[in-house]
């Protein structure tokens, strides 16, 4: 019977191709636009570190030394504060970092081509806290050594993906030894640097001990606040320059409470000493809270997604009224079929099969449309380019939405259709 | 035209008519809000920025070699760069800056009069002011006029001063809004501030248009001389030779020293449209969606009229038999669409406001106004009429004889 | 074959009640050819709708080929329609963009027959009505009489126990009407039971039983002598299984 229904669907399409094209087109446009937006939103709302996102916290403190406290509790800390947190060992695990950029080349390379390499100046604990996996080697053991870890992409660029542990790079005029190479590492959103529009940047190319980076004045490529003037970064360890982010790992509420108590006490002590003059306001944000706080989900996109949702609704209404017209037009045939022995159920299922096939066609069309729209988004919104993709699970959802929309458009007309009295057929 | 009869005939198809009205209402709501966004984006784009954008090219350049870590070497190369660029026939002015007007993030400082107590909090409008480190001719290149005082002269160059002492007190220029806010009712010229001595006040230029104090800016004649700091070269170019000059400029810079990364090269006009890209892109997306929606609604209007007419074939035949002219029939079918549009236009106001509020929860939305609403009503009305015309016209072809047919 | 006892069919609208059939009783035996006549609005159509299971009834008892239809589900009623009843409509009710073959095929599709079984039946039925060579024609390419033959083939292909015909010749000229009547009589002679609504008193007299419905009741009840099959047309084929 199912095959017969498919056969009938084909006949109906042949009979009124324009009608089916219109229905498929309207539904596909609606589904496609929604799908493209949902895809991007789903990537933006993604949990970047599943399983640990409730246990990793960004530390915000209000130890600003200036009279002005425009930002309140800040995610950029002084070197001294960050170091105090790490040295205290109150947290289960902790790391501090700042963002930099250096030009890199192999020390043994003959030509002078250098690659702009996003760099993270951090601690050896960073990899463990952030869940980065090593393909070769391990983190540095000595935080004052000129040892670095590089990412998969840079390793591919410079060493063709081979084990480069022990190889040397020239960075900012000095030689650094590679002690570890990471496996391909995708973190979206990049929660360890969710501010300053970097939330959808790739993970870094180079990881360097933060002490070494500060000693060598690797510039900060992110928000820096300072109440004291300085010329080089190595002068910032003792002064009020705020540029370091701290992430701590706290396994349960008890640890969290202990840590909060610790930093509050620490900040109070500083205040008593006259180190800063603001109310103690230390905040811990877990990964999700931190991403929310930084509004990594593009508001424009969210607004547009709402609009596309409404649009899909309109498309369903449209398909619905088209379907209604069609069922009215084909009422004669449906009645005839019932007169010669098709049951209501059979006529209904014929409509359902038709609707399902239509849904499939719409799904395929909407994928094409969604891909095109995402390409358009990459053109229109630079910052959305990294998330303008259609992940596999969205294709599944797309099919679901298409089938649902198609069935929704059919259900009322179908019920209407089976309700009519058969007696009319005779006249 | 008998409105009662029209309404009755519409009630015969409650569901379909209801769907169409609902569609029109939503379309109106979306169309009006899209229009508002477009108008706003357009307003932003057409606002005067206070400086010349045409024929100004910006080059973001960053050294890649460690040699530039030495400030003296860095500065000597910049001097050579400036000379090389100036030597280009097509270039009339060159300068450099750490950041461009129309900026999102960058270098910010607080400013107060030198006598302001150090411990007191600074008023919000003097806190976090975009602070530019520019070269000579920066204002002349941009065509920004001095409002008071004078432009920078060679002697004002604070680069060396800062290299020797981080607390150096330079001569500075403020934008007019900032100067007038800092020194209301008196001239700012000659005043000592926490950032230096004011020697000039430049007419307002658009620095951070998306923020509250859009024209506040501090300018110092200074080069950071840091290899890793952001640096733009600015060129004023002969009209019509943009592309050619871009290529020549890159060549000239490479010739001065090859180990540099030309990260970006663009005109200020491009920079301007990039700055507003988010607003315009959103407006484009919404307009696109509105176009889709209008298209879909037109399909609906078409289908509605088409099937309604075919359903009422006999009735229309009778009307024709009883003497209705083709014109009357056309009007009959059209006026049904118009009646639907009128109902939708009435209810659409609610949808405009609802969608405005819904979107307003997420992004900042301009408030709806009568003009934009009426424009949308007209657009929807016209597209509905267009979509109904074909089926309506077909209906006029129904022969009066239909009335007498029994089958 | 068909037994109606005290059937009533009342149509209710908001303001009015119409008794389309009242206390209507009728027995039709296997092999009968019954003509139903009566003025417009007398209840002929209602009778045919009820008999054909297209419409329900308000009161009474209706047994079709041994099955009491009261309280049957839509599925059961549909199966009964499909297996036991063949319809012939005044305006043929063929699907215009289906070929002759596909039109006849339609009821068979709802019976779970194999493609081969269906083909055999369709070919047989079309041959029976004299359209064996026109499988691929569209209804519009045939004359009215031929179209009605297709409709008859469609009704026959399902091997129904009873044929219900609603003014089968109403849209045809007299020559074609004659041919269709002859065809129906042949089919009847083969053993099929036929109930035919007609306006034509001559046609009514041709068959072996004639009932008249007025105001939803049978008022005239006359039995004519069973008609002899026309010996000039020999039906020597058996319907294939």
Automatic annotation (TrEMBL), chain A:
Residues 306-421 form the ABC3 transporter permease C-terminal domain. It comes from Pseudoalteromonas luteoviolacea NCIMB 1942. Keywords: Cell membrane, Membrane, Transmembrane, Transmembrane helix. GO terms for molecular function: transmembrane transporter activity. This is ABC transporter permease. InterPro entries: ABC3_permease_C, MacB_PCD, Macrolide_Exporter_MacB. The keyword DNA damage does not apply. It is found in: Cell membrane. GO terms for cellular component: plasma membrane. The chain crosses the membrane at residues 20-45, 301-319, 347-374, 394-415. It is a multi-pass membrane protein. Its main location: membrane.
UniProtKB/TrEMBL annotation, chain B:
Belongs to the ABC-4 integral membrane protein family. It comes from Pseudoalteromonas luteoviolacea NCIMB 1942. Residues 289-400 form the ABC3 transporter permease C-terminal domain. It comes from the Bacteria. PANTHER family: ABC TRANSPORTER PERMEASE YTRF (PTHR30572:SF4), MEMBRANE COMPONENT OF TRANSPORTER-RELATED (PTHR30572). The chain crosses the membrane at residues 282-308, 329-358, 370-390. InterPro entries: ABC3_permease_C, MacB_PCD, Macrolide_Exporter_MacB. One of its GO terms (cellular component) is plasma membrane. The keyword Membrane applies. Residues 24-252 form the MacB-like periplasmic core domain. Keywords: Cell membrane, Membrane, Transmembrane, Transmembrane helix. This is Uncharacterized protein. It is a multi-pass membrane protein. GO terms for molecular function: transmembrane transporter activity. Its main location: membrane. It is found in: Cell membrane. It holds the Pfam family FtsX. The lineage of its organism: Bacteria, Pseudomonadati, Pseudomonadota, Gammaproteobacteria, Alteromonadales.
UniProtKB/TrEMBL annotation, chain C:
SMART domains: AAA (SM00382). Keywords: ATP-binding, Nucleotide-binding, Transport. GO terms for molecular function: ATP binding; ATP hydrolysis activity; transmembrane transporter activity. Residues 2-240 form the ABC transporter domain. It comes from the Bacteria. Belongs to the ABC transporter superfamily. Macrolide exporter (TC 3.A.1.122) family. This is ABC transporter. It comes from Pseudoalteromonas luteoviolacea NCIMB 1942. The lineage of its organism: Bacteria, Pseudomonadati, Pseudomonadota, Gammaproteobacteria, Alteromonadales.
